Amino acid sequence: MPTRAAVATPHPLATAAARDILEQGGNAFDAAVGAMTTLCVVLSHQVGLGGYGGNMVAYLARDRRVVAVDFDSRAPLAFKRDLFTNTSDSSLGYKSISTPAIPAGLALILKTYGTRTWKDVTVHAIHHAEAGFAMDETTHRFLTAWLQKTDPDSRRTWFEKGDIPNIGQPWIQKNLANTLGQIALDGVAPFYTGDLARAMIRHIQSHGGILSDRDLAEYQPQLVWPVSISYREHDIYVPHPPAGGITTLQILRTLEAFDIPHMQPWSAEYLDLLAQVIHQCWADRIRYLGDPDFVNIPIDQLLGKRPRDRMNHTANVTILDSEGNLVTMTATQGMVFGSQVVIPGTGLIMNHGMSRFDYENPHHPNFPQPGKRMHHNMVPTLVLRDAQPRFACGLPGGTKIITVTAQLLINFIDFQTNPRECIFAPRMHTEPGEGLGVSSAVPDSVIEQLKQMGHTVTRGQSVGGPPTEIAGNANALAIDANTRVPSVASQASPDAAVVLLPSLPLPK
Q: Mean pLDDT of all residues in the chain?
C-alpha cells in the first residue's frame, strides 16, 4: 500500500490546495508550491510574491537523500550606506525593498523536483484572489494598521475607496489574480524580466527606491547542501546560512552533553539550562553569521562537540506525499506587510528585506553590501533516523524561530511527543541581556522556580500572535518508524492539517 500523504500549513485554504494537488497526482513539491502561492493570497501579511525569500529542505525519496533550495533575497546593487540616513529607511517604504525572491524560488523547486505546471499549482491561489476569501479578524486588524503606515499611492491601489472589507466579507484582489494568471501561463519570467518587472521597478524608483531592472534580471535561487548534525542518533537538517538554523543546531549540539531525556519535561531545571545554552550560542550568532558569499563562517567550529562548561510574518508548509517525499518550506514578507508598499496594477505587496541587515558596524558580518544576502531566522527542519525521514517542522516568529525550533526537536526526540503535543508544549525564548519569555503553557509554579534561580520571567514575547505566547503557529509532521503512518498537526487550526488515506476519496 502506498504511504499515506499528509499536509500541514497555517491556513485551511492552503491545506486544501495542497491536498487537491496530491489527490490529482502531484507530488509533495507541487503541493508545497501550490500551498505557498495560496498563502501569498490568504495570508499576505505574512508572505507574498513580493516577499524577500525563503528556504526549503526536503527528503527526495527516489534518491534517498536530503536536498535544499535557498531563495534568499539580495540587497539592491545600488546600495550605499549614505542612502539610508533615517532609521526607518531600512524597514518602511521604498528603500527597504530588496530583490523579491519567492517566485524564483518556487519556480526552481517546481522545475527541479515537481511534476506539475504553474497552471496546475496556481488554481487555488487564482480562485481565492479573484473570487475573494472571507476577511478574518487577524487580517482585518493588520490591514487597519497598514492603512496608517503605508503611502497614499499604495493605499489607493489596494483599497481605492479606503474601505477594508468587514470581517466575514470577501476580500477580492483582482490585480493579484491577474498577476498569478500571468505566472500560470508564462512562468515567472515576466516577474523578473517582463511587464511585471518593469511595473515594479518604475513604481519603486519613482518613489525613491533603489531596486533596479538588473537586480531582478540577475537574481537566481540556488540548489544548496543543507547543514546537518547528528543528535541522539537522529540526523537533523536545516538550511545553509544565511538562514538561522545553524544556531538551532548549535543549541542542540551543546545540549547533547546533558541528560535531557531524563529531565522533567519543561521543568524549571530544563528551561534554566536551555536559557544558559541559548545565551552562549547567541553570542556566536552575532559574532559570525552573515552571507557566506561575503564572510567566512566557521561552521565546523560552531557545530563541534561542546564541553559542559560552554553553555506571524512568515509562513511554513510541511508536506509528505505517497511516494515518501517530505518537504518543509518557509517563506516571508518580513514583518507584517513588509515595506507596506503595493505596486499599482499588480496586487503585489513588497518586502522589506533591507531591515534584516545590521547597519551600525561596517565590519559586522551582516552589514549590507550590494548583492549581499541578509542573515535571517527561517529554519524549516527535517529529521532522519536510520536514513529514513521521521519528522519535519517549521514556524514563523522572527528570532524566536531559532530557539523554538530547537525546543520542537527536543520535544520530539528527547521528550517523545507526537506532533500535536510537540507544537502546543511549553516554550521559552531569551537572548543575551534579556529575561525569559515563556508561553502560557508554562505553569506558574515553574515560573516561580525560575525566578528563585535568578531569572526575570514574563509571559510571552509574541510575534503576530496572542500576547502570552512565544513565536507563531508551528507545523509538525512525524512518520512512525514501524508502520510508516504519518501524523501531522498545525497550531494555526485543526482544519489546516490533514492525513490523506491512499485508497479513500476525500471530500472536495
A: 92
Burial class (CB in 10 A: 0-12, 13-18, 19+), 178: middle
pLDDT higher than 90, residue 461:
no
pLDDT at position 503 is 46
Ordered structural domains, the chain, with CATH: 5-221+320-356 (no CATH), 224-314+378-486 (1.10.246.130)
Contacts of residue 379, Cβ cutoff 8 Å, sequence gap at least 6: 238, 239, 243, 244, 245, 248, 330, 394, 401, 402, 405
Return the half-sphere exposure (C-beta side, CA atoms, 13 A cut-off) of residue 346: 25
**C-alpha span between 249 and 251 (Å, rounded):** 5
* CA separation for the pair 73, 204 (Å, rounded): 17
CA distance 155 to 162: 7
Interatomic CA distance for residues 47 and 317, integer angstroms: 12
| Length of the chain measured in residues | 508
Name the 3-class secondary structure at 376: coil
356 touches 54 (CB < 8 A):
no
Distances (CA, A) of 344 to 174, 210, 320, 440: 12, 18, 37, 42
Instruction: State how beta strands 53-60 and 436-438 pair.
Output: unpaired
Q: Are 326 and 335 in contact, with CB atoms under 8 Å apart?
A: no
Q: Is the pLDDT of residue 74 over 60?
A: yes
Mean pLDDT value across residues 405-423: 98
Residue 95: DSSP 8-state = G
The residue type found at 229 is: I
Please give the Cα distance from 259 to 262 (Å, whole number).
6
pTM exceeds 0.85, yes or no? yes
Beta-carbon contacts of 202 under 8 Å, excluding residues fewer than 6 positions away, are none
